[in-house]
């Protein structure tokens, strides 16, 4: 196979696709990002970026652009959802920044995506096409050729499929893998900080646990808004990205929660809902000159707040592998080798959190007692393997 002497194609202009383009450019490689939406944008409310993702964003040169947008919560406060009592306080802020060398950031998704997009627009090595859904792909001995919905074709050295959870390229090139509904859906919203009831900390990450639901909130947009996620049991979910949902559906989900949390949820009138899907057996990440990345490769349930961070890590490592190897085959094999065990571990840890969050009865009581008794430092140190990841800066 030949060297990377032509442009690398990227399908999907979400966090993963844009981070990959920036990481490739940092190493001197040109890319072309196809995004099927008519404008580059993102859906959803907030996003938490642990220190492992912060390292990548800093190396992509985004630290300054993001500084004024980032929230830096002091702690994660875990609440017993029913009583509202605090079960434990896991230190973030300076503590986590010192421990792992990067802060724990929280963003409005739009702010994070806009920073990645602005940097990509400013970069001469990156071409962006919106309204460009990749619908076909053929692989030759030394090239790939992507076809978009309008019939245009573009040749490149390889294609990175960063087309998200419902990846059509995964189905096309990696065999049909069934996404499994987790029987949970997430409703997301953002509300103005002045509408947040007193009694809700707006400077921390709040995590409220009850038997069939949990709630997460944290400050975004420099503390002027609060992002809110309500995850609740759901019987069914139509396949697809996101849907409108009635506020009543969300309120019903938190009926067992303390009044202050119910007041917080009632303060929101505009929710969107995401069915939460898992891919228990991710396919190989590489097939010839096509590599899967981010949610397309390995969707992560959101109970560890790491799916987007994994997409950032993937993009950075993929670019590293492209720089370190002479041909596509060796570079993509190295990428798969470097990423697979880690992302499978993250997927598993997230599933486990999901089980723990929704425990019922005596098991929930035992969980709460354990959280109360655990030294906060220990609760954080169990994630050293996750947050302590450092990209190779070379
Ligand atoms: C409720 C919830 C909360 C979450 N919270 C967090 C969190 O706090 N922290 C965290 O790190 N992660 C979180 N995640 C996970 C995170 O949102 C995803 O892991 C992340 O968005 C994946 O990025 P991606 O670029 O791989 O895919 P996506 O963000 O889905 O981007 C894929 C892009 O590809 C485009 N596309 C699709 N098909 C094509 C095609 N054929 N051609 C061209 N373009 C195409 C789409 O329009 C889209 O723009 C959360 C997820 C959920 C559901």
Task: Give a topology summary.
Blueprint: E1 8-11, H1 15-26, E2 31-34, E3 46-49, H2 51-59, H3 63-67, E4 75-80, E5 86-91, H4 93-100, E6 105-108, H5 109-121, E7 126-129, E8 134-139, E9 144-148, E10 153-156, E11 158-161, H6 168-173, E12 180-192, E13 205-209, E14 213-220, E15 225-233, E16 243-245, H7 247-253, H8 259-266, E17 271-278, E18 286-287, E19 290-292, H9 307-324, H10 328-357, H11 361-373, H12 376-381, H13 384-387
Parallel strand pairs: 1-2, 1-11, 2-7, 4-13, 11-19
Antiparallel strand pairs: 3-6, 4-5, 8-9, 9-10, 12-15, 12-17, 13-14, 14-15, 16-17, 18-19
Helix pairs in contact: 1-5, 1-9, 2-9, 9-10
The chain binds flavin-adenine dinucleotide.
Organism: Candidatus Filomicrobium marinum
Pfam families: FAD_binding_3 (PF01494)
Cofactor: FAD
Descriptive tags:
394 residues; binds flavin-adenine dinucleotide; 13 helices; 26% strand; six-stranded mixed sheet; FAD/NAD(P)-binding domain; 35% helix; eight-stranded mixed sheet; single chain; alpha/beta; globular
